[in-house]
């Protein structure tokens, strides 16, 4: 399926969801399928700050990170035809929603156990540097679920789905929302 058959009207697609949900990985393929460009907000933040996400959290704290995240999102929202793989916490800042809602927001909803398996492969995420990282992940998910639920499209991801299947499910979800808007 291409952008012409989807008639996305050039709006940006914002992928939201917990860390490890596959926003960056799926975003790449989704962008290709839509004929869009992919941007990863974490990558842009590291370029802007000229240091790693972990260093920003360690040296400047989470608040400073959130300000950079909002700045990057605000700059991206001036463009069109982007898939934006956001950071898991972007939904926590109410002011970010004014940018997100200019586009289509897609929630990649991955069950906790499955998220945990993926995250353990790369244990570097700063918010999980706690004594009980699984419990921290669970708490973050509980705190954020109602925020992710504000998305236009909710894609519940089965553990055995390939990136291709996830991207196709997102496109199917978007096509339903667009049809509803057109009627
Ligand atoms: N559909 C998938 N099937 C299996 N592994 C996946 C899938 N999507 C992402 N992953 C893996 O999960 C991890 C987290 O993915 P990533 O795209 O970095 O998540 P996010 O950007 O949401 O934090 C990576 O190791 C990635 O290879
Ligand atoms: O959930 C969060 O608050 C965060 C998620 C991370 O992005 P990913 O969702 O891409 O891992 C990154 O922005 C930072 O570590 C904070």
UniProtKB/TrEMBL annotation:
PANTHER family the record matches: SHIKIMATE KINASE, SHIKIMATE KINASE 1, CHLOROPLASTIC
User: Where found, per UniProt?
Assistant: Cytoplasm
Name of the encoding gene: aroK_1
Q: What pathway does the annotation place this protein in?
A: Metabolic intermediate biosynthesis; chorismate biosynthesis; chorismate from D-erythrose 4-phosphate and phosphoenolpyruvate: step 5/7
> Which catalysed reactions does the entry list for this protein?
shikimate + ATP = 3-phosphoshikimate + ADP + H(+)
- The organism's lineage? Bacteria, Bacillati, Cyanobacteriota, Cyanophyceae, Acaryochloridales
Q: What is this protein called in UniProt?
A: Shikimate kinase
Which organism is this entry from?
A: Acaryochloris thomasi RCC1774
What is one Gene Ontology biological process annotated in the Swiss-Prot or TrEMBL record?
Answer: amino acid biosynthetic process
The entry lists its GO molecular-function terms as: ATP binding; magnesium ion binding; shikimate kinase activity
Identify the main location. cytoplasm
Please name the top-level EC class of this enzyme: transferase
């Amino acid at each position: 399926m291409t952008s012409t058959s989807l008639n996305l009207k050039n709006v940006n697609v914002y992928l939201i969801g917990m860390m490890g949900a596959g926003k960056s990985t799926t975003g790449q393929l989704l962008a290709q399928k839509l004929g869009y460009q992919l941007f990863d907000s974490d990558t842009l933040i590291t370029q802007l700050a000229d240091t790693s996400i972990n260093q920003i959290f360690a040296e400047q704290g989470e608040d400073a990170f959130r300000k950079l995240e909002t700045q990057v999102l605000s700059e991206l929202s001036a463009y069109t035809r982007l898939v934006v793989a956001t950071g898991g916490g972007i939904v926590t800042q109410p002011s970010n929603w004014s940018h997100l809602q200019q586009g289509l927001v897609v929630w990649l909803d991955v069950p906790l156990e499955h998220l945990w398996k993926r995250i353990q492969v790369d244990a570097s995420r700063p918010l999980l540097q706690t004594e009980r990282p699984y419990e921290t992940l669970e708490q973050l998910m509980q705190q954020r679920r109602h925020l992710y639920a504000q998305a236009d499209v909710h894609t519940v991801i089965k553990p055995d789905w390939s990136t291709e299947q996830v991207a196709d499910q997102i496109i199917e979800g978007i096509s339903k929302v667009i049809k509803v808007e057109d009627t």
